[in-house]
Design brief:
Number of domains: 1
Number of helices: 6
Bound molecules: adenosine-5'-diphosphate, magnesium ion
CATH topology: Rossmann fold
Helix content: 40-55%
CATH architecture: 3-Layer(aba) Sandwich
Structural class: alpha/beta
Number of strands: 5
Shape: globular
Order of helices and strands: EHEHEHEHEHH
Largest sheet: 5 strands, parallel
Strand order of the largest sheet: 3-2-1-4-5
Length: 160
């Protein structure tokens, strides 16, 4: 099979149920999904790249089909370096479209071998973002429904 590995890149600051849903559904299509945390997302992030990696590692729990990694520089170069040819991205509202469209066009113009595949959010995650989860957590709100429990625990520690 040609597209057996998908790269799922992002900030994952922190990983939410929305991300987890894309990963789970990605595995229905691809043999392996590599979750790739962008190192350039360290600025203004709540969790360091190391903390995000550790959290995601706990969640993927030795599933041989999943891997978490980090990348620097151009995403398409990273994709090719991992012998992959597909970038997996999630789409929520129309507001995601403009940026994702630009990114996909730019990536294609850099490398024609790499395709971007979009998956629509599940309805229950349509308004879920790492930013909104951080905001609610910072105000002491209940975030248990929106993130896996180890993430909720780490968020509570950050804002304790
Ligand atoms: N609730 C959600 N449902 C579906 N996709 C999502 C959701 N939240 C984030 N995503 C997708 O996950 C990917 C990574 O998102 P994010 O961690 O915000 O990193 P980035 O900094 O690249 O936007 C993006 O494709 C984003 O659209
Ligand atoms: Mg985002």
């Amino acid at each position: 099979m040609k597209n057996h590995i998908a790269i799922y890149p992002g900030s994952f600051d922190p990983i939410t149920n929305g991300h987890m849903d894309i990963i789970r559904r990605g595995l229905e299509i691809f043999d392996r999904v590599i979750i790739a945390v962008a190192r350039n997302s360290e600025k203004n992030s709540l969790f360091s790249v190391q903390e995000r990696l550790a959290l995601i590692n706990r969640l993927i729990d030795n599933n041989p089909q999943l891997e978490v990694d980090t990348f620097d520089g151009l995403l398409v170069n990273y994709v090719v370096s991992r012998d992959a040819s597909v970038i997996l991205r999630g789409l929520r509202a129309v507001s995601d479209f403009e940026y994702e469209f630009q990114l996909a066009q730019m990536n294609r113009s850099i490398s024609q071998q790499v395709e971007t595949l979009f998956m629509m959010t599940s309805t229950q995650n349509a308004y879920l973002s790492s930013s909104i989860v951080k905001e609610v957590a910072s105000l002491g709100g209940d975030i248990e429904k929106f993130v896996p429990s180890p993430v909720a625990e780490e968020l509570r520690k950050k804002f304790a």
